[in-house]
Amino acid sequence: MEQIMNETEILAFDYFKAFGFDDKQIAQLIMQGKKDLHKELKKLKILLHTDTISYTDINNVLHSLKGLLFQLGNHTVSDKLNEVGLQNESDIRLKEIALLLHL
Question: Are 12 and 73 in contact (CB under 8 A)?
Fold first, then answer.
């Protein structure tokens, strides 16, 4: 989980810089983004490790994560989440998602 957050933080800095934000603004955006990203990753980790899988809840968190990652400039992982998203209720997809996000 920390790895994906660190990678995203690095990408976010360059992404926001390209939009013309100053360093202070970027720091604030990244701080809030990391907070939101951590919250959603933690939710997903809990959902993936429960005995009864709620695919609806997992899909909701994945949707939030895809948007957060995209907004923070981590388009590669956002796109990959879209590719391995839950098209059907399959443990294989869940394992791919957990590996992708280092959960």
Answer: yes
